[in-house]
Amino acid sequence: MFGEEVASGAQHADNIAPAIYGGVTLIRATEPIDVVPLSAPPLHVTVVHPQIEVRTADARQMLKQQVSLKSAIHQWANVAGLVAGLLKADYQLIGRSLEDVIVEPVRSILIPGFAAVKSCSLEAGALGGGISGSGPSIFMLSEDEATAQAVASAMRAVYEKLSVDFHIHVSTINSVGVRFKQ
Fold first, then answer.
1. In total, how many domains does the chain have?
2. In a 10 Å sphere around its CB, with 0-12 CB exposed, 13-18 middle and 19+ buried, how is residue 46 labelled?
């Protein structure tokens, strides 16, 4: 978390907790640290990483310091829906809940092709997705590998058309976290 503070200006466990625990984690608090591992149905993740720089500290500074109560309620409902969807293995609820009304509209302007990637990915069958961290990576969740590969093709087409270098990764969610081979 101290490394995250250097990179972004704030201590958080959004990256390190899932790396340690694996799977999907809910960071309920950081003082004191309270990490809640969540069960989840099988999910495939497609991530595109355009080869541009988005500095976490800069992306964080863009965010509004205050949000409307209406937006906050909408966002809280989506977080609750996502957690419920994961725990109930309800793919449609997961998809409906992958909507960020606070951060994504602001940060997405830093990522060329974001709207096109999101739209094409949904058309290819992704459940939903968004910006990974502060960006520039974009993630999409899918029920199966075939869909995740179709999403990868859609992402590839967007960035090839924009002439932006990129890397794409397709994987399942690692359920055990980082382990060292001996």
1. 2
2. buried
Catalytic residue among 30, 56, 104, 145: 56
Max intra-chain CA distance, the chain: 52
| One domain, residues 153 and 113 | yes
Assess whether 94 and 154 both reside in one domain.
yes
Please tell me the predicted confidence (pLDDT) of residue 4. Answer: 67
> Nearest-CA neighbor of 99 among 69, 135, 127, 134?
127
The parent domain of residue 11 ranges over 1-38
Q: 53 an active-site residue?
A: no
Question: Do 65 and 76 lie in a common domain?
Answer: yes
pLDDT band at 163 (very low <50, low <70, confident <90, very high): very high
- Buried b / exposed e over 110-124, threshold 16 CB at 10 Å, is bbbbbebbbebbbeb
Determine whether 4 is an active site residue: yes
pLDDT tens profile 94-109 = 999 999 999 999 888 8
